[in-house]
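TL;DR need C-alpha cells for one chain.
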Amino acid sequence: MPKYEEVVNLALRRSLFYPSSEIYSNTPAGFYNYGPYGAAIRRKIVDVWRKELVQKEQMMEIDGAISMPADVFKASGHLTSFNDPITKCKKCNATFRADKLLNEITKEEFKEAMKEEELTKALRDNKIKCQKCKGDLEDVKRSSLMVKAEVGIAEKSSVYLRPETCQTIFTDFLRMTKTMRLKLPKGIAQIGKAFRNEISPRQTILRTIEFTQMEIEVFFDEKEINSIERFNEVKDYKISVQLAGKEKIEKISCEELVKKKIVSGKLISYYLARTQQMYEKLGFSVDLIRFRQLDDQERAFYAKEGWDFEVQTSLGWTELIANNYRTDYDLKGHSSGSKQDLSYVDDQGKKVLPHVWEISIGLDRTFYAVLENSFKQEKDRTILSLPNSVAPIHAAIFPLLSNKEELIKKAKEIFESLQNYEVFYDDTGSIGKRYARMDEIGCPYCITIDFDSLEKQDVTIRERDSAEQKRIKIKDLNNVLYELITGKKKFKQV
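>> reply
TL;DR here they are.
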C-alpha cells in the first residue's frame, strides 16, 4: 500500500483528520475537520511558526475578517486573474483542470498560465477524452476560484470569502503605520481560513476548498533590500534550491544566492534561510526539501520573483509554501481602488510605497507532510515519530493494572503532579495496547506505575521511538520530563 494511503488510514483511525459533516451523504468534497490530537498537532505547528518566524523576527500579528467586499478583489486583480483553465465533458459534464489532465496523461509539462487555445490544441492533438465516460471534451476556458457570498437582510451586499489571507494585511497596512509605530522593514503576519473554488478537491487535506494559511508579508523599501542587519547570521547557511529549467537540486549559501543574483537581494535570501530552518525544526531533512524557482509562466500574476517551497512525499514533490516578491503591486492596487495613500513615511519625512516579500504557508499541507515525514512502521508497531515540539501530548500516565486501587491512586497522584506538561491518563486495556495507541498519535513518553513504584517510589518511563524503558525516581520525574521534552537531555542520558 502506498505510504499516502497508510498515513490517511492512520489519520482516520485516530481521528487526526476526517471529512467534515461525514454523517451526511450530500456533503461537498473539499472540507475536513481535525479531531483532538490532530487539532493539537496543528496548534503546535502554528506555535513553531510563531516562535521561529513571527517572534524571532519581531513581526506584528493580526487577525482579519474572512469575508471582504468585491472592491478589494477588484483592486487586487483576483476578480480578473485568479482562475484555472478547465475543460468539461460534453456528455457527462465532468470537469477537469486542463493543464493537470494533460500532465497526467502525456507526462509532459503543461502550465496553468498557458493560453486557453494552446491547452485546447494539446487536448485535441493528444486525443484526450473524458476520464469518466470517454466523451468528448469542450474547449478550455477560465474558471474563477473565488467563492462568493451575500450578507445583509434589508439590503444585500455581495462579498467574497478571501482566497488568500494576505489581502487583509494589505488593507490593514495604513492603520498599522499610523497606530503601531511601524518601521521598515517589518513583517505583518496572520493565520486564518481562506477559500478557493477548487475544480476537483482531492488527496484529502492537500487540496481543499476551505484551508488555513500562515501568512507573512514583509514590507520594505526597495532601495534597502540589501540592508539586512542580521544577514551575517545566515550568510554561510546553505539553501536547497532548484533553479528554473534545471533538474538538479543544489545547496547554495545565502551569500552566493545574492552575489550570483539568483535572488533579488539579501532580504529575500535571509527569509528563504529562516523558512528552511523552521522546517528543519519540524523534522524535515534538507535532502527532502527544496525551493523551486518559478519561471515566467509559473509565477503568479503579481510576482517579480517566486520560489515554491516543496517537500518530497510519497506523492512526489508537494508544495507547502508560496514565496513571492510581490513588489508594490498590492499597495499600489489598493491605493488606487480605495483612493487612499498607502505610502509609508519614515521619521525623516521620507515617503515610499513599500515592496513586499511574501511567505504564504499552507498549514493543512504542512500538517500532512509532518505526519508522513514522521510515519514509521516497525514489525507490528506503527509510530508517529513527531518532534517533541509538535507532539499532541508530552507523556501518558498508566497504572500497570486497572483493577488495583493502590496503583490507580498513585498513578493519578503522579498525573496531577505533572500538570505543567500536557499529560494523558489511561487505565483502559492491556499495557501493550495503551503503548500502541500512544505510539500512533506521536506521544514521546509513557510513564507506567507498577507495584515496585509503591515500594521504591519510582516509575518506568518508556521512549516512543526506541521502545526502551528506564526506572526514574518519582521525585526526579518532573525535571527529567522537562529535560527530555526540551531536548536538554536525550533518553540514553537519563
